[in-house]
Structures are given as C-alpha cells and as structure tokens.
Design brief:
Layout lengths: L1 H23 L4 H10 L5 E6 L10 H4 L5 E6 L3 H10 L6 E4 L2 E2 L5 E7 L19 H5 L8 E9 L1 H7 L8 E4 L5 H6 L10 E5 L5 H13 L3 E4 L3 E5 L1 H4 L3
Parallel strand pairs: 1-2, 1-7, 2-3, 4-6, 7-8
Antiparallel strand pairs: 5-6, 8-10, 9-10
Length: about 240
C-alpha cells in the first residue's frame, strides 16, 4: 500500500514537472527528456524496434552517444539493415538483429516498396514496410511495386530475455507501421520496465490509441503526444539513475 502511494505521488510530481517543462522548454520535450534523463549516465541501454537505416525519418542518431550506449537495433528489411549497420559502424556496443518482432509468429512475410520503384513515390514510403500488405495499398503503392520477403520473427520478451545485458532498459522505441500497440501489450513489466517508451501512433486507430494510453497508465506511465509518436515516461524510475 505504501509503495503504491509512493508511485502515485511520483506520478503527480512528474505531471507538475511536465507542466513546468511546457512553460520553459520550447524545443522538443522528447529530446530534452532523453538528453537529461536517458543519455546523461554511462552506460545506458536502449532497444530500437523498426530501426530502418537509423537516420531516415528518425532523430535518434543525433541523440545517442557512442561511448555510452549499449543497444539492440532491430530491422527486418535486409536492404535497410545493411545501411543501418553502415550508419552505426562507429558504435561498438550496438547489436544488430535482422529480424521482425511479432508476438506469436516465428516467420512472417514483410511487404515493402521495391527499391526499383521508389523513384515513383515520396521518400517516406521507404519506411512503410509492414506485415499487412493493405498498409502499403492504402498509401497508394501499386501492387506491382510491392515486394515481399519471409523474415524471422521473435517476440520482444524473447529478444530481451536472450539479451540479458540490455537490462535495466532505459529507452524502448517502436516503429512498426501499426503493430506498435501489439508489441507494447506483450511487455512483461515485471521483467523489464523502460524509463521511456516511444511508439508511433499515426497508424493506430483512435480506439487503439486510447487502449494503449490506458494500458500504459495502469503501469503508471505518463504519456504525451508528438506529431507522429507517443512518449510514455515511467515517473517512478525516471528521476533515478
């Protein structure tokens, strides 16, 4: 009972802290919090699901420090996986996994825009690979321009349990084109409780977003919106080292 009361008090303190943050910090609240509380100690552990090439459509490359980071970067697309490893070759403590994260499957088809057809589409469409081919079709990708690969899958907890050194986990980022909430639901918070979770909301339905927020709130995460993502912060552990 006392522990639960302490968690609630810390939750309220962080709410007040975030109100003050909004008043005085005009730049990205995510970047500010990441630099102040995630990457301010050595070492720190992060997991990136759907890393793409590590630079496109993402600012994580500019935020992390190679001499402090222990990370696992997951990218199922073999083309972008090769570029990811190249972009982060100076980071000696990153492990790269050419797999997909799925709660139940060991293998699944990944659908994405064929590289030869990319010049016909906006640049951001190189990042819309999905288990669901309809996700590409709804973005007006022509069927003949979609290619598919069978990829190895693991659940998030399977990956984390295999990589025990990644605990305690400071930061978890998920960008899986609509599968984000399914992955969040699979987290065993008794095993791993990230300080901060960042996941994409633009491909979730309104009901999925509400479900995700409620699910995380029950785990005492404080959440706020960015244009494309939701940031969930664990106040109870946030101010600790």
């Amino acid at each position: 009972m006392l522990n639960r009361l302490l968690i609630i008090i810390q939750y309220r303190i962080f709410q007040l802290y975030f109100i003050i943050l909004n008043l005085f910090v005009k730049k990205s609240k995510f970047e500010y919090l990441f630099k102040k509380f995630i990457s301010n100690k050595q070492p720190y552990n992060i997991v990136i699901i759907g890393a793409h090439d590590g630079k496109s459509h993402d600012n994580i490359y500019e935020l992390i420090k190679s001499d402090r980071l222990n990370g696992i970067f997951v990218e199922p697309n073999k083309i972008y996986f090769t570029r990811l490893k190249k972009n982060f070759e100076a980071f000696s403590n990153i492990e790269f996994e050419n797999i997909a994260i799925h709660n139940t499957k060991s293998y699944s088809e990944l659908h994405y825009v064929d590289e030869k057809a990319m010049h016909q589409y906006p640049d951001w469409t190189n990042g819309i690979g999905s288990f669901n081919i309809n996700h590409l079709l709804k973005h007006n990708i022509k069927p003949e321009h979609i290619t598919s690969d069978l990829v190895i899958c693991k659940s998030l907890m399977e990956l984390i349990n295999e990589k025990a050194h990644i605990k305690p986990l400071r930061f978890l980022q998920i960008d899986t084109e609509g599968y984000d909430f399914e992955i969040i639901k699979s987290i065993d918070f008794k095993v791993v409780r990230p300080k901060m979770i960042k996941f994409e909301h633009v491909n979730l339905t309104k009901s999925e977003i509400q479900e995700a927020l409620l699910f995380l709130q029950k785990q005492f995460y404080f959440s706020f919106f960015l244009p494309h993502d939701i940031i969930a912060v664990n106040p109870f552990h946030f101010f600790r080292s």
